[in-house]
Write a structure and sequence with these properties.
- By secondary structure, the chain is mostly helical.
- It has 2 domains: 142 residues, no CATH class; 72 residues, no CATH class.
- Helices cover 70% and strands 3% of the residues.
- A two-stranded antiparallel sheet has the order 1-2.
- A hairpin with a 2-residue loop joins strand 1 and strand 2.
- The protein is flat.
- The chain starts with 7 loop residues before the first helix and ends with a helix.
Length: 230
């Protein structure tokens, strides 16, 4: 199966199925949700598996495991001088598995579906104007990332992190938020100048795939079985 065989609704169905599986399956069964997410990624959006190269992802996983071992459940073991909880470590592991499943599905949806397609789907569902709002939010992400990097580099080069770090971080946060709001305001003004309005919003055409119907039906049955298995 290739990714092109799924359209917008099929890709969105995969994402929602993984999300529901991660919510319904807790404890040891969280591994099933992760396996389900990995299987869909291998079949329809293998590029999503590149998320495994991210150091930030594995740092997040380690933080979940460490926080669970340190603060969840009674301490019944020791790692050197640190008292840890095996029950909390297990809980952190289950949370990490569910988070990985959702992150892979999210990465797959972002890689295989454009914001315009999602906006068109929202417009067709009767949520008028929400597609434009989604487009603005997605458009802000690269600008927000650039603003954050530039602000951080400026502070680091000027030695702002050596003294009064809390004040410096607050000012950096204020700078990034101000730039994001200014960018959003510019987009809104440009849209208003071009005559954009909710009454004239049109739903964009959706990309259709040959396997949309069978995949969505199969996923619906599978999610129903998982819900009955709780």
């Amino acid at each position: 199966m290739s990714r092109e065989r799924l359209g917008t609704t099929g890709q969105l169905g995969c994402f929602l199925a993984v999300l529901l599986a991660a919510v319904l399956l807790g404890g040891v069964r969280a591994g099933i949700a992760l396996a389900f997410s990995l299987g869909l990624a291998l079949l329809f959006y293998p590029s999503a598996l590149r998320i495994g190269r991210s150091r930030t992802l594995w740092t997040f996983v380690v933080m979940l495991l460490a926080s669970g071992a340190l603060w969840l459940g009674p301490a019944d073991a020791r790692v050197g001088p640190i008292a840890v909880s095996s029950q909390g470590l297990a809980a952190g592991l289950w949370m990490a598995l569910r988070a990985l499943a959702i992150l892979i599905a999210t990465r797959g949806l972002a890689a295989s579906t454009s914001p315009g397609e999602l906006a068109g789907l929202l417009e067709r569902l009767g949520l008028r104007g929400l597609g434009f709002t989604l487009g603005v939010a997605v458009n802000l992400l690269p600008a927000l990332e650039r603003s954050s990097c530039r602000t951080w580099d400026t502070l680091r080069m000027r030695g702002g992190l050596r003294h009064r770090r809390r004040l410096t971080l607050r000012l950096a946060t204020l700078t990034v938020m101000s730039n994001a709001l200014r960018r959003a305001d510019e987009i809104a003004i440009a849209a208003e100048a071009r005559g954009f309005g909710l009454q004239r919003a049109r739903a964009l055409p959706l990309r259709r795939g040959r396997l949309d119907g069978p995949v969505i039906a199969s996923l619906a049955v599978l999610v129903a079985l998982l819900a009955a298995w709780r």
